[in-house]
Design a protein that fits this description.
416 residues, alpha/beta, 14 strands, 15% strand, binds 5'-O-(N-(L-cysteinyl)-sulfamoyl)adenosine
């Protein structure tokens, strides 16, 4: 599937430090760089289910992993980035039926809107952007391997995966079985279905239902389960032991646990990913922003209202990616003012010394993507630069604005 156009990313005159990231599996900060093969830094970020427009929660996730992508590039690594699109799944089919349009048309329309949103936010596109539908042969291949390992079984017309097949099951989320049992039904699981060997076993192939799209497979007509889709796409494009799997914290369990379990069942020599990184949830009006609750702030709606996408991006950067926070209009208006003030400082050309702020921005991002710390460093530079002629005269750096503007773009994705 076609991704979106890449923004220009300026090269920096200095090399950024190695990146440390909080790994959900180890519950600790770990250095993330080359993958198991040692050829490049590889990233898989779970993509959208395209039944509605991109909201701020999605934007926050993709901007977060864009910071990681940029941090790796600035550290001199080559990055291999893959992302999926869940372009066939229950919520998409349900929405298409509700609004009486073809599910393919709905998906294509929302994917196109997502591309425009990502371009506006200057998110570097994945080299491999892959839909679930186009990956069905890969999914079938992976299920065959799981079948050969004795890890799948039928319940009526559907096929399930046995979580007992993966010795490392639970290692990604670190959740207790009680926690898993509580969360599983809230996130698409069906613990109570009769015939399952373990209530937590996930569906890998859903037999055809009347009125739903289906594809041929050795287990009859049907469509892929959700977790097997990301396991198959990530393995195909990034291999076993790729560097980081990312997504929102709502994907810690079951989604990322099950992806890892599928992959590790057929190849236990390497973990599915070397580290798992999760963003906090963005809320609005007191609840997690979600399509099902309808409390959404869309990137496209703000773009249509002529709001500066760089101000939207700055609102996201002002929150640490691991925190949960609430979107408010005030945050956006404040970021619009800040972007204006920063542009004013950058337009001066000369300013307070640039070298320390460039170093601090790169260090902050390499330190578990600490964007608020990077933003504070830029703000201090702007304040020093605009803060009165006496101050400027003392510290004047003729070339400061060009250098600061470069690091803002290369590390933070802010082109001002
Ligand atoms: N297609 C699957 C992943 S394979 C999916 O979860 N799609 S999604 O459209 O529901 O979400 C896309 C990404 O945005 C996921 O990484 C999800 O964790 C993240 N996300 C969804 N809602 C929020 C939110 N309110 N705050 C932060 N991130 C969110
Ligand atoms: Zn996924």
């Amino acid at each position: 599937m076609r991704a979106w156009s890449a923004p220009d990313v300026p090269a920096l005159p200095v090399t950024a430090p190695a990146v440390r990231l909080f790994d959900t599996a180890r519950q600790d900060l770990v250095e993330v760089g080359l993958d198991a093969v040692g050829s490049n830094a590889s990233l898989y970020v779970c993509g959208i289910t395209p039944y509605d427009a991109t909201h701020m929660g999605h934007a926050n996730t993709y901007v977060t992993f864009d910071l990681l992508h940029r941090a790796w590039l600035n550290a001199g690594l080559t990055v291999n980035y893959a992302q999926n699109v869940t372009d066939v799944d229950d919520p998409l089919l349900e929405r298409a039926t509700k609004v009486k349009i073809d599910w393919r048309e709905l998906a294509e329309r929302e994917i196109e809107l997502f591309r425009k949103d990502m371009e506006a936010l200057r998110v570097i596109p994945p080299a491999n952007y892959t839909g679930a539908v186009e990956s069905i042969p890969l999914v079938i291949e992976l299920i065959k391997q799981l079948e050969a390992a004795g890890a799948v079984y039928k319940v009526e017309e559907d096929l399930y995966f046995s979580i007992s097949a993966d010795d490392a099951f639970g290692g990604e989320s670190q959740y207790s079985r009680e926690q898993m049992l509580e969360i599983f039904p809230e996130r698409g699981g069906d613990p109570d279905r009769p015939g399952k060997k373990d209530p937590l076993d996930p569906l890998v192939w859903r037999g055809e239902r009347p009125g739903e799209p289906s594809w041929d497979s050795p287990w009859g007509k049907g469509r892929p389960g959700w977790h097997i889709e990301c396991a198959a796409i990530a393995r195909e494009h990034l291999g076993a032991g790729f560097t980081v799997q990312g997504g929102g914290s709502d994907l810690i369990f079951p989604h990322h646990e099950m992806c890892a379990a599928h992959a590790q069942t057929i190849d236990s020599s390497a973990p599915f990913a070397q580290a798992y990184a999760h963003c906090g949830m963005v809320g609005y009006l007191g609840e997690k922003m979600s399509k099902s609750k309808g409390n959404l702030v869309f990137v496209s709606a703000l773009r249509n209202a002529e709001l500066d996408p760089m101000a939207i991006r700055l609102v996201l950067l002002r929150h640490h990616y691991r925190s949960d926070w609430e979107w408010t209009d005030e945050l956006l208006f404040d970021a619009v003012d800040t972007v204006g003030q920063w542009r004013k400082a950058l337009a001066l050309g000369a300013g307070a010394p640039a070298e320390p702020v460039v170093a601090e921005v790169l260090a902050a991002i390499a330190d578990d993507l600490d964007a608020p710390r990077a933003v504070a460093a830029v703000q201090a530079w702007v304040d020093a630069t605009l803060g009165g002629s006496g101050h400027l005269a003392q510290h004047s750096d003729e070339d400061a604005a060009a250098q600061v503007s470069k690091v803002l773009d290369a590390a933070l994705g802010l082109s001002l």
